[in-house]
Amino acid sequence: MAQQAYVRDTDDEGSRPVPRGDRLRRLLARYAGGWRERRTWRRGLITAALALASAAVMAGHAFIPNTVGNLGSLVETFLPWLGLSVPLLLIVALARRSASALIAVMVPSVVWLSMFGGLLSDKTGSGGDLTVVTHNVNADNLDPGGTARAVAAAGADVLALEELKESAVPTYEEALASGYPYHEVVGTVGLWSKYPLSDARSVDIELGWERAMRATVDAPAGRVAVYVAHLPSVRVRLEAGFTAGQRDESADALGAAITGERLDRVVLLGDLNGTMNDRSLQAVTSQMRSTQGAAGDGFGFSWPASFPMARIDQIMVKGVEPVASWTLPATGSDHLPVAARVSFDDAAS
To answer: What is the DSSP code string of 36-99?
Structure first.
């Protein structure tokens, strides 16, 4: 009888439900035990290799050749988006319980943060002597008047518009007349200003037609040379890759024009069809600063307006100090307008 009682008591004990806390501890212990196994270092090698490859592309993008389909420029245009590989590979590494993959994923994380981490902080300052806006208004814009009023509402002292359709120019002029008494239009680009303009002229960017100009703005804080440019479009084609040859030649010509500028204060506004990372724009980017990189909040992507993936609309300066940089709400264009405030350097003349 004693033995039966003992068996009965034992069976009753075994049938009792395991407390939830004990179950969680056992599950965690089993998971941790899996990490202690030697094979955790052997599994996930493909994930680790992909992580190291992603880091190599980011860190060594300058060594990717442009000889075949301008592959290097294509990668550099969307370079920040390679950071998406980090969370994806991290999820795979955790699912596979791979120690080697987890360690490898840290490499592209560090590389991405070293390259783009500074853009994640808000560097916006206060004050400034001049507010500028640039916008590719899109030749097929169905509401040019509304677009003009929208960008004017940003309170810019100087406003640059690109891709102006000849038939739409009067509409822009009428919509902006009250706020901007001075303006110049050269080909498909135009400059509107609250302050007097002088020495306005076309800038030859080797296209055969006018898509760039320069003018002197006599602002209260001093004179500044303002360039407006719309570099040729680029295309991605399966049979030809990233076709950007004409854009690259125009960028070199624009860079040469800015190098020869006699004024010390220079502001470049426009659609450059390329990012600051694109080596093919080096003739321009090597001598000017991006206001977004110096004083912006985030990446400032401007194209396409429906889901911005790259900042190809640029505000660049030299001889003045960027104070703030931001993007404006969408208009009837496929680009977002971009804006900046700059402070004049007293040493410039």
So the answer is: HSGGGTTTTHHHHHHHHHHHHHHHTGGGS-STTTTHHHHHHHTGGGGGGHHHHHHHHHHHHT-H
Confidence of residue 5 (pLDDT cuts 50, 70, 90): very low
Q: What residues have CB less than 8 Å from 241, skipping those under 6 apart? A: 68, 69, 70, 71, 74
Instruction: Give the DSSP letter of residue 279.
Output: G
The 10s digit of each residue's pLDDT in 309-347 is: 999 999 999 999 999 999 999 999 999 999 999 999 754
- In sequence order, the 6+-apart residues with CB closer than 8 A to the CB of 36 are none
C-alpha dist (Å) from residue 77 to 87, 128, 290: 21, 30, 15
The answer for residues whose C-beta is within 8 angstroms of residue 60's C-beta and 6 or more apart is none
Question: Quick one: pLDDT band at residue 10, thresholds 50, 70, 90?
Answer: very low
The answer to whether 322 touches 342, Cβ cutoff 8 Å, is: yes
Residue 302 DSSP code: -
